[in-house]
Write a structure and sequence with these properties.
about 85% helix
């Protein structure tokens, strides 16, 4: 039971960090986290890459957790 709690806590942490990374990507796209002298094209590309990385980690964690839940039954 102790290992199960650690896994669920780590899964929650990964979800939270992935969500924060996605929000940071959106903030970069909107121009809040990037200096004003950075060209708009770089800002949008950088923000999109950061957002997509967060989404990728979120989906990957979700899919892996569903596979682990199925194996435990």
């Amino acid at each position: 039971m102790g290992v199960m709690n650690i896994v669920s806590v780590l899964r929650f942490v990964v979800y939270a960090v992935s969500g924060a990374v996605m929000i940071a990507g959106m903030m970069a796209i909107l121009g809040f986290l990037v200096p004003k002298h950075v060209p708009e094209h770089y800002r949008v590309i950088f923000g999109a890459v950061v957002f997509l990385y967060g989404a990728y980690r979120l989906v990957l964690t979700y899919v892996r957790s569903k596979g682990m839940d199925r194996d435990e039954k």
